[in-house]
Amino acid sequence: MSKRKAKKVLLIGWDAADWKVINPLMDQGKMPTLSKFVSEGVMGNLATLDPPLSPMLWTTIATGKRADEHGIMGFIQSNASGDGVTPVLSTSRKVKALWNIFMQHGMKSNVVAWWPSHPAEPIDGIYVSNFYHKLSTKIDYRKPLAPATVHPEKYSKIMDELRVFPWELSQEHLLPFVPDAAKIDQEKDQRLASVAKILSETATVHAAATWAMENSEWDLMAVYYDGIDHFGHGFMNYHPPKMDIIKQEDFNLYKGVVEAGYRFHDMMLERLLELAGGDTTVIIVSDHGFHSDHLRPKGLEKAPAAPAAQHRPYGIFCAKGPGIRKDEIVYGSTLLDITPTILDLFGLPIGKDMPGKPILQIYERPEAPDYIDSWENEPGECGMHSEEKRHDPWAEKEAMEQMIALGYIDPPGEDKKEYVDNTVRESKYYLSKVYMDGRKYTDALPVLIDIFEEKQEARYARALIRCYLNLNKSDEAMEILERLEKIHPKAKTQMQIFRARISLQKKEYDLALEYLEKAYLVSPNSHVINLELGNTYFIKKHYTKSEQAYKRCIEINHIDPSSHYGLGRVYLKLRNNQLAAEHLVSAISLRYYFPVAHYFLGEALFRLKNHDRALEAYQIAVIQAPGMEKAHLRLIKLYGDIYKNEEKAEEHRRFIEEKILPLIKAKGRA
Amino acid sequence: MPKKNNSQFQDIPLEGSLGLLALGAVGIRAWKKKREESAFVNENKNFIKVKPEAKKDPKAKIAKKKESK
To answer: Which chain A residue lies closest to B46 (C-alpha atoms)?
Structure first.
């Protein structure tokens, strides 16, 4: 059994926090606490999942499961009887969260504002639900605490008293965010009130978390702050550099809001670390990043959850504590890895039904983790709500009415059935995206066909085309594309990209290039078009043109792993092995789970006669993709010819004969 | 668990500060207490033009009805 490495764990969630914003602030000394934190621990990117919607992602972080397993699908859902709609609740979660597992092991957890966590679960510890800090959309209304917001109930009064409201805030609080606030005509411009609302909610969460830390014993303290995400959605378009679509006077007024939001989180972090003490392992994560530069979208689609288009696919991960490496970078982590990592920190086995892995790179001395089949069947009181409460239409109805009354979600309108149907369809759309993200295309297909037949929306059609293409069904993809052209005739460039992809799948490369070159003339700064051009020129062996296209991609977005990978492959073809290795390393540092990139890095290093590192790269390729025959063949050559280790070479030969060849034969028969 | 003692909260500004909010529960309680003791009213109306309106609180409404009965 693996040993307990952490005495206590403080898990801090900063929704939408992004290194692209944080790094310059740390360099300028504006986030001193986090700066010290990362120098004393590890930091890295945390790849998000699709769709990047917070209730789904934070549930993944706390359970280690994808949304098709954990059951939280978007913001609202149909109720148990199917005749109404309810917000996603803690009762909607179908699997155990970390705090439930810990309760079964006699450990104490505090949970504050995790999303979604209402009604509060009766765990061994203090639990404050995500209904606690949310103000009404009418910010001058002091809403009462909803029932079951706080567990144990005896702490409700103190938690209520700790809440901070916008009307309590003064210039001392708001001038750091908007120095020229006095110039604002608040009758016309509500944005200062919006800053006050977000700041009040954030301070309220922090008050509850710090109170719980000071007044209870705990093994796990999990606290979630949504302030950075909300400041981002409200004010990232005013963040420097100035966007063309933003008026100069608005830019001047609100350009400092995002930065001030991050700096306030840094101040709160200082207090959390002080309360946690030096012997606590501290982990800070965000569920996704937030576009803060030229990649900021200039407009949003009119669709539910459209603001998610502002999210960047990489969040943050950093950790420090006893036994954790100092001032190091970790690569290749995803949201799925947080629960396995925390279980491993406490010396508990990881569920084999959790698709992630513990981030062992954080340790000074990593040890092999333990596994069990699943935590779901482990007996013992875990603090999850009873079955009756899970399917209690009355409680759901009450919660929904409360949510509408408080302005969290829109009222159903006159046609209740249509409202329910829309909600169900939206949940199915998210489910299909979860399946696609997990490469379960055959599961996604019937769901997408179903919703597209029900309602011909462009986004459903686009998802269906992608799904068909991943299943190598180009004729079916073309059929949907023709329907999409009727639904959305103005999106000509997008159609050309899809036509190019379909042509590529049919091996009609010249036709694909024709579509892409036309699209490029209209949108020369499109990352997608340049990437597709790079890939297609590569197939056509036009390596110089391919190189130019990939370089344009990197100019547009220098942290895109696919462009670095493409460029690495071009340089391999051009026999510039050093540059090839550099770009392939860049690709891997941005997306660690990338078996072909590891393989081609092995190729570049092999040619550079750096055999040790080439061996390492091929080994990672076969760990990530055990069926990659060409990597096994390279390992056989390296072990046999260079290292004279016949035993190891034979191991890989046997693997090909026993595991890979039968699969190839079976595929051939099929 | 390190706690802030009362002596650390002697110079609390009535208007509050981001530093007090960042201290969490102890900072907020100390600030609210100070305001209560001084019967402080936030006069910075130029900043946030909202005030709590008890009449909008449904519970307060119910309580008022009960009182009148």
So the answer is: A182
